[in-house]
Amino acid sequence: MTDMVKLWKLHIKKQMHQYLFPITFLYLFLLPYHMQLLTDMDEAGMVQVFDSAQKYLLLFEIWFQYLGFRMVLSPELKEASYSCVKKIKGRWMLGNLCFSFLCFLPYALWMFFHCGTYYGNLLPVLVQCIIAASMMYTVMYFLQSATGGMAVMVFYFFCCASRVVPEPFRILRLGILPLSCFPHWCMMLVISIFVSFFVSLRILFM
Amino acid sequence: MENVMIEINRIKKKLGKKEVLKGISLQLKPSVYGLAGANGAGKTTLLRILAGVMNADGGEIVMPEGSGQTGYLPQKFGCFPELTVYEQLEYFACLKKIPASCMESEILRALECVNLGGKEKMKCRKLSGGMVRRAGIAQALLGNPALLLLDEPTVGLDMEERKNFNRVVREMEGERTVLLSTHLAEDLKNLCQSVIILESGEVREVVPETYD
Ligand SMILES: Nc1ncnc2c1ncn2[C@@H]1O[C@H](COP(=O)(O)OP(=O)(O)OP(=O)(O)O)[C@@H](O)[C@H]1O
Ligand SMILES: [Mg+2]
Known about the structure:
- The structure holds 2 protein chains of 2 kinds.
- Chain A has helices at residues 2-14, 16-38, 43-70, 78-85, 90-119, 123-143, 146-161, 185-201.
- Chain A is an all-alpha fold.
- Chain A is globular and about 55 Å long.
- The N and C termini of chain A lie close together (11 Å).
- Chain B is an alpha/beta fold.
- Chain B has 2 domains: 1-68 and 146-212, P-loop containing nucleotide triphosphate hydrolases (Rossmann fold, 3-Layer(aba) Sandwich); 78-145, no CATH class.
- Helix content of chain B is 32%, strand content 27%.
- Chain B has helices at 43-51, 85-95, 100-113, 129-141, 159-172, 185-191, and strands spanning 6-15, 18-28, 32-36, 58-62, 70-73, 147-151, 177-181, 194-199, 202-208.
- In chain B, the strands form 2 sheets. Chain B has a 6-stranded mixed beta sheet with strand order 5-6-7-3-8-9, with helices on both faces. In chain B, strands 2-1-4 form a 3-stranded antiparallel beta sheet, covered by helices on one side.
- In chain B, α2 (85-95) packs across α3 (100-113) and α3 (100-113) packs across α4.
- The chains are: A mainly alpha, B alpha/beta.
- The interface between A and B is medium-sized, with 20 and 34 residues.
- Bound molecules: adenosine-5'-triphosphate (ATP) and magnesium ion.
């Protein structure tokens, strides 16, 4: 565990600017902007706020995962790293996820208290972040590349956002209310596939 | 047999349509082995399988219990441009789970071994080719692994560094198993106690070497 923490410190120290960028954007721009929108408290405003919050958090989640895996999966260090760790780590992905949640949490809580009672809460967004992160992890696992994983995920994200992909394959549920984004067979299927994928790699127990 | 550290039994590997390794069997004692053979003979493939980067299609590798991690220098080793030499080694030390208490001394020791002491604050993008290679060797040396796999370690090293590298390898003689691939007769002669000659995916012979 200590080695993971040390590795974390190294990542954060070296990529400070890249990590700070989304965080400053979230708290210095998005939050005040959403606050302003929510002062009217009308329904259309809330949907708008919720929708954009969801989109930004998902994009930032993808960005955080990319930063986390950039070094491990870089062409320079990949080979030598693999001889040390054998498999790229699901645990590492979970670490990235926790870190990003930690950064998003104040914003998410604010969201929850302001449009929570009305439209369900932000839990669906965080769950979607988990789904996006595990999808990205899977893509990175097969492509063995962090940039590739990010490219695929961003592409898929925009496909979902612009509704190019047909409804059942839109696993990232963008532009709908949180209450209606949960029970969705394809999403459930994907979640169960990921769970079995993780368990089969035994990464949760490493 | 006594004192056999690592047993490699009938390792096979097919890459694309080509059968790169056709059943390699070796027994490695704590000693320095040179791996020789023409381009495309399968040296890198064998080392990658031993390092665990790639899975073999058949056969087995038996390592003694608790032999710890292996040190591996890939043929194409690069440095992550944003890191300093020290941070790069710190990264590998973390991956190798070297305890935090002795991490710093271990990193400095490894850097000292390859004559990179005093360069630890240098950004990796400013390193010359030979320095990158040496940083790679230092990375493999971290944590005193019982098995050291070096894929063409001397490529790009100047005379002085080559001598230094010889010294480092000689010091490990008899304590650890070192398997290094090379194209240089000089390396085989100066460094290795035995030479394993690969030819189109098979071990042609294992020749004992004697120093001058
Ligand atoms: N990813 C791959 N896909 C298909 N064939 C491959 C792949 N990697 C290597 N090969 C083939 O495997 C054979 C052995 O390659 P390997 O890299 O092990 O040779 P080598 O002995 O290390 O050669 P060199 O002295 O040039 O480093 C070569 O014929 C090569 O063309
Ligand atoms: Mg090679």
